[in-house]
Design brief:
By secondary structure, the protein is mainly alpha-helical. The protein has eleven helices and two strands, in the order αββαααααααααα. The chain is globular.
Length: 326
């Protein structure tokens, strides 16, 4: 039963509280709506700029922009995005496959296994790794990782060469897609781990305690109560990491050998990406070459947008499934 207390002006305290809430919600609704519209406007402005700057180069292109494997806009005027887009997707997918299981394991260890004295500093350390500049990762990859991977790459080629990823003839090791994928995986791992950790910590404690009370082990409790709850968050974290991997420039520019071939052989020196090609070629580009690089940036913009739309669709589908099963 609710009791309305009359004030001196004849109104009730409940009415005045509701009035204050309505007055406070209106400005917040305006600001939040304006922020959303501003964000969409910025994205539209970026798209318009990329299209306007890329059109002259696309019109002057003497090859097929979508299928051509040659990138010579400064000399012959022939350039295509096929090899660069393939390398971008392959390197990012490789990084995601390597980083996601490790990041989820780190997040689970910090949130549910590590003692509190260890969990806090370990969480801070993971967060600090995300702040390391990409050029540091790139230099570390060139100076330390690339020489270190020569022997493992040769072993994989000799023993697992029947698998397309590890196949190849001639030079094995060095600046390869595998080295770039590992560097990208290390770069995106802190992002995925930090977000996944926060999601796992938000899992309902009642569900965890109920599973333990029924005799479940800690892993069974995590599998039944924590992972299903945190799956949408892990997907969001993985897509955020994938977006950074696709747009990474300096680290992959230092490692990739800047070739223009489409191959699944990640142990041979055949690798490139859109971002690395922009970083390597922008300084010496002509007007047509600069427009070609901007056109490749437009393709990267579209790929990233499609990836985020697909991730949002997956997350919404899982939310609807969870709501239906509740």
């Amino acid at each position: 039963m609710t009791t309305n207390v009359r004030t001196r002006d004849g109104g009730s305290a409940t009415d005045r509280s509701a009035s204050r809430r309505s007055h406070g919600e209106a400005p917040f609704r305006i600001v939040s709506t304006g922020a959303g519209v501003l964000l969409l406007g910025i994205m539209a402005a970026i798209a318009v700029f990329l299209i306007a700057e890329a059109l002259p180069a696309l019109q002057a292109n003497k090859g097929n922009f979508l299928t051509e494997l040659v990138w010579e806009p400064n000399s012959s005027g022939v350039f295509g995005i096929a090899a660069l887009a393939f390398g971008t997707v392959l390197s990012s997918a490789l990084a995601l496959v390597i980083a996601t299981p490790v990041a989820v394991g780190v997040a689970l260890f910090i949130s549910h296994y590590a003692p509190r004295r260890l969990a806090a500093p370990l969480g801070y350390l993971v967060d600090l790794l995300a702040a390391v500049p990409s050029v540091v990762y790139g230099l570390w990859g060139v100076a330390f990782l690339v020489p270190l991977l020569r022997t493992p790459s040769q072993w994989l080629n000799e023993n697992l060469g029947w698998f397309p990823l590890f196949a190849g003839e001639g030079v094995i090791g060095g600046k390869t897609m595998l080295a770039g994928g590992i560097v990208l995986a290390i770069m995106i791992l802190p992002i995925i781990a930090a977000i996944s950790r926060e999601v796992f910590l938000q899992a309902p404690k009642m569900n965890e305690e109920a599973a333990l009370a029924l005799g479940a082990t800690r892993w069974e409790m995590i599998r039944m109560a924590v992972l299903p709850f945190g799956r949408p968050g892990v997907i969001s974290a993985a897509m955020l990491g994938l977006g950074r991997a696709m747009g990474e420039t300096i680290a992959v520019a230092l490692i990739f050998p800047a070739t223009f071939d489409i191959t699944f052989q990640i142990l041979t020196p055949n690798a490139n990406s859109i971002a690395a090609n922009i970083a390597n070629g922008y300084g010496e580009a002509t007007d047509i070459g600069r427009g070609a690089l901007i056109a490749s940036g437009l393709v990267l913009f579209v790929i990233t947008l499609l990836v985020n739309i697909a991730a949002r669709a997956v997350i919404n589908r899982r939310k609807e499934y969870a709501r239906a099963g509740a």
